[in-house]
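Quick one, tokens below:
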């Protein structure tokens, strides 16, 4: 798994070909990529929110209670896994339109690898800083989008032109899913699932 992560950052075209071949042989092993790396943002957020804290104005940092931070980290872990699975389902649903017929497993694994930069953006939560977090998220989304566009033809086995259209449609679906997650978070907070701060 770790050599694929490095490959995705240094030579993504060749790495997509390698991943494509290995998914065919033993795809179920690749779901570990999702379950392990999806824990990075939640674990980093837990440490950052309880040990360092947020400070928007440079005054005393605001920290969360251990129980609240742990609860929110666990919820975020399952939300990330759920989002990747939903994106895989979207990819599978759209695939026939673009001349591909991948399995659900292939689509979920593809979505999990596309999100690799976003998992590592979660490390920025170790030192909560609004400008740093915003910069990191923008960079992570940018590179994940790049991986999506170049990986689609390799993994889905379609020409680049169709892969570009497929990736564009999937990126739009991802934006809709992101908005839905934000609305879901707001509703969740309204019903008592929000953070509990240390006094």
């Amino acid at each position: 798994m770790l050599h694929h992560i490095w490959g995705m950052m240094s030579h993504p075209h060749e790495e997509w070909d390698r991943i494509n071949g290995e998914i065919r042989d033993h795809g179920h092993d690749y779901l570990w990529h999702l379950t392990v790396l999806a824990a990075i943002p939640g674990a980093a957020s837990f440490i950052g929110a309880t040990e360092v804290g947020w400070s928007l104005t440079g005054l005393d940092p605001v920290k969360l209670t251990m129980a609240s931070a742990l609860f929110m980290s666990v919820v975020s872990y399952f939300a990330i896994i759920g989002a990747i699975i939903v994106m895989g389902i979207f990819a599978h649903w759209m695939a026939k339109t673009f001349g591909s017929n991948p399995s659900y497993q292939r689509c979920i694994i593809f979505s999990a690898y596309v999100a690799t930069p976003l998992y590592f953006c979660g490390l920025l939560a170790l030192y909560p800083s609004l400008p740093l977090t915003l910069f990191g998220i923008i960079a992570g989304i940018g590179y994940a989008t790049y991986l999506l566009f170049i990986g689609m033809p390799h993994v889905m086995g379609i020409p680049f032109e169709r892969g570009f259209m497929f990736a564009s449609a999937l990126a739009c679906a991802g934006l809709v899913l992101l908005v839905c997650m934000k609305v879901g978070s707001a509703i969740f907070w309204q019903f008592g699932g929000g953070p509990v701060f240390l006094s």
